[in-house]
Amino acid sequence: KQKEAIVNAKILMVDGNDLSAAIEGAKVAKKNGTKVLYDAGGLYEGIDELLKVTDILIPSEEFALGHTKCETAEEAAKKLYETYSPEVVVITQGKKGGIIYDGNEIKEYPAFLVDAVDSNGSGDVFHGAFAFSLSKGYNYEKSAIFSSAVSALKCTKVGSRRAVPTYEETIGFLKERGINV
Questions:
Q1: If you count Cβ atoms within 10 Å of the first and of the last residue's Cβ in the chain, which end, N or C, has fewer?
Q2: Are strands 11-14 and 98-101 parallel, antiparallel or unpaired?
Q3: Residue 143 and residue 116: Cα distance in Å, rounded?
Q4: Strand runs (DSSP E) across 60-177, as ranges?
Q5: Three-class SS of residue 59?
């Protein structure tokens, strides 16, 4: 049933916490045309095998710098792209927003200043929102902006899951800031 769910999905989102399951799932996804989004946060041993089957690589800046030994996020994005050949590398940089690299150019995406009360889970929310926005047809840049807004809004409420804003709330938040995605 799990493999069937992967085959029928547009996107499989994995992290490295159960590495063997993530790799197995990612290989099933790749073989069946399902995109693999990897939420790269931990520097786990053996992670290269998962990186090799990743289409959408979204590491934290800490992971990107630690894994590549590069000095800057921009250098790390390029090295990750050249080494593992994903479609895109999106490095999250917390309050600074982040960068997107698709093999052609580095683009920045914003973080949104809010009155934060609870940032726990905001990274996971970013990744989930990214997968959601891609499934709605957004390109990588719009997905990053949308996901940054979702993550910011999540931080304005206490809790992880119940603090996630609706799609409509997020679009309204962006429109208030003059952004259409």
A1: N
A2: unpaired
A3: 22
A4: 88-92, 98-101, 106-109
A5: strand
pTM: 0.95
Measured from the Cβ of residue 171, the count of other Cβ atoms closer than 10 Å reads 16
- Which 3 state secondary structure label does DSSP give 37? strand
Measure CA 98 to chain center. Answer: 11
- Of 138, 157, 139, 140, nearest in space to 98 by CA: 140
* Beta carbons within 10 angstroms of residue 61's beta carbon: 18
In angstroms, the CA 131 to CA 67 distance is 23
Q: Each residue of 54-69: pLDDT tens digit?
A: 999 999 999 999 999 9
Ordered strands of the 11-14 beta sheet: 11-14, 35-40, 56-59, 88-92, 98-101, 106-109
Secondary structure (3-state) at 121: coil
pLDDT at 134: 97
pLDDT score at 44:
84
Question: Sorting pLDDT into bands at 50, 70 and 90, what band is 1?
Answer: confident
Beta-strand pair 35-40/11-14: parallel
Range 164-171, long-range pairs (CB < 8 A, 24+ positions): 164/125, 164/128, 170/129, 170/146
Is-contact 17 41, C-beta < 8 A? no
Residue 161 pLDDT grade (very low, low, confident, very high; cuts 50, 70, 90): confident
- The answer to whether residue 45 scores a pLDDT higher than 90 is no
